Hints:
Strand content: over 45%
CATH class of the largest domain: Mainly Beta
CATH topology of the largest domain: Immunoglobulin-like
Distance between the termini: 65 Å
CATH architecture of the largest domain: Sandwich
Radius of gyration: 27 Å
Number of strands: 24
Shape: flat
Largest sheet: 8 strands, antiparallel
Structural class: mainly beta
Helix content: under 10%
Amino acid sequence: MKISSLIRLNDLLMVTALSFLLLPSCNKLEDTNPDGVSVGNLKKSTNGSCLPMVVRGIYKVDSILTDDNYVDIEVDVSVGGNFDITTDSINGVVFKKKGTIGEGPGAIRLYASGKPVIAGVSTFTIRYGLSSCTFDVNVYDQGLGTALYTLGGSPGNCSISSINGNYIVGQPMTASNTAELTVNVNTVGTYIINGNTINGVSFSVDSTFINPGIQTIRLKASGTPSASGVFTYPVTNLTTTCSFPVTYTATVANANFVLSGTPGNCTGATVMGTYTAGTALGAGNKVVVNVNVTSPGNYNISTTTVNGISFSASGTFNLTGQIQVNLAGTGTPTAAGNFNFPLSGGGTTCGFSVLCN
């Protein structure tokens, strides 16, 4: 009896020891990404609402949703990797997106699919890892009325915030060719702007205002330009009119611009995000700088690599005058301290500093 009791006791001790060995292993699987799956949390308010609340598109009963219907969510990623995020299906609609994301703060755009069934407010829940948050979508009746609004800058130049994409003779317009302008909405509802075709290109939009007040609308370009030069496009609604210029080139030319503050400190440079030694930069790590554009075209602005990180931006300037540019940060800081970054672009230079913890 004593020998068998001793054997049973040894067996019990062995099982207990194995249990303690297995527990840390299970926890480790939850905290890392052996399968390449990202680890992180959704940003949300104290009441569980997703932050920030960015819902785009029109949601009408019995109307099929498109790529214009989406929600942008903010996440803090501790381990970069793959993600597959899907909301619950509410009122015939679901939001989802698959992809990869790097470590640090970032944004993910979930696209909607389906067709709303009834009007009203639908509350969706997003889950990412062990975190969750909620957001509301207003679904409108099919017979939503026409909006009342005024165009910013009327009756002169439209209040244009940006003109996006390349405008080259003989090259068809794509989804990246847009013009964003400011409007003041008095009464919510649907709105349609169908611009005139000038130089083979027109700008139009068909959408809905869901909130009153000053906001930005995006006109989409279509067609193929036939000649180079500057062409003026009128924008008209029921009560107001404004216009904006678009520059077309025979080839993709380089822009002429000057960095604000050259050759000293970059004027008005704003450093965004947190910088920590040993932590790779993410989507939230960027620097906003000001430039003065004298002629449209392609641009390339970049810093040298300092303390293991650098900042850069490239694209096309389609407007002249003072313009803000977002420089994306890349790399991993190697040490703590305050570091100066020389910035070059358009044949000019200026500098800004970044504090690393």
